[in-house]
Design a protein that fits this description.
The protein is built from 3 helices and 13 strands; from the N terminus they run βαββαββββαββββββ. With about 220 residues, it is mainly beta. The protein folds into 2 domains: about 90 residues, Ribosomal Protein L25, Chain P (Beta Barrel); about 120 residues, Ribosomal protein L25, C-terminal domain (RNA Polymerase Alpha Subunit, Chain A, domain 2, Beta Complex), CATH 2.170.120. The strands form 3 sheets. The protein has a 6-stranded mixed β-barrel with strand order 1-3-2-6-5-4. A 4-stranded mixed β-sheet has the order 10-7-9-12, with no helix packed on it. Strand 5 and strand 6 form a beta hairpin.
Length: about 220
């Protein structure tokens, strides 16, 4: 999995006043859990742009001014309710020999013939929770939908891998094409280029919301 480097400074004061002063200076107070003790640090808000404002999953290398360096993942983030500025971020420290739980995005490749024939593409699982060692974390799952016809689906079973454990039942549907009004079934011997009537199916908005399994870290008071 790709990693993003965050350069910061360890915090000596962790009270509310100190955190407010950091935010006023354009800094974000952060905490790294999972080690022997929580590590409090701050970094410029701009440094988190590629980590926070992206659908992709990344690990983080936290580099402090004293040369201390550690690998982590973002566990929780707080935004200002009005301005959407980042108020606080929690991280969880990674260790090479310790498995962690993380949500991995799913990317669809190709165009479904079922959708072209009027079916509806339902993207049921945009994120999949997995458990793996840090070095075995994939950047994303790729699913080819170019063979999906009306009534077809792709389940978690087709994504299983020895390097990680997917924390969903094997029968869980990730993406499917369902029949929609005006959909037509194309015969196998139908020649390409024949005109097909019917509305093109839109991606379903009824995908189920999933709850990410969180890492086994104690999330105590943020500051």
């Amino acid at each position: 999995m790709k990693s993003i480097t965050i350069k910061g400074s360890e915090r000596e004061s962790v009270g509310k006043k100190a955190s407010k002063a950091l935010r006023n200076a354009g800094m974000v107070p952060c905490v790294v859990y999972g080690g022997e003790k929580p590590l409090h640090f701050s970094a410029n808000e701009i440094a988190f742009r590629d980590l926070v404002y992206t659908p992709n999953a990344h690990t983080v290398v936290v580099v402090l001014e004293d040369g201390k360096k550690l690998q982590a993942i973002m566990q929780d983030i707080q935004f200002h309710p009005v301005t959407d500025k980042i108020l606080h971020i929690d991280f969880y420290q990674l260790f090479p020999d310790k498995e962690l739980t993380m949500n991995i995005p799913v990317k669809l490749l190709g165009n479904s013939p079922g959708v072209r024939n009027g079916g509806r593409l339902l993207f049921r699982k945009r994120l999949l929770a997995i458990k793996a060692l840090p070095d075995n974390l994939p950047d994303f799952f790729e699913i080819d939908i170019s063979t999906l016809t009306i009534g077809d689906n792709i389940t978690v079973e087709s994504l299983l891998n020895d390097k990680f454990t997917i924390l969903h039942p094997e029968t869980t549907v990730v993406v499917q094409v369902k029949t929609a009004r005006a959909a037509i079934v194309v015969e196998e011997d139908e020649e390409e280029g024949d005109e097909i009537e019917g509305e093109e199916g839109a991606e379903g908005a009824e995908g189920e919301a999933t709850s990410a399994e969180t890492a086994d870290a104690a999330t105590e008071a943020k500051e």
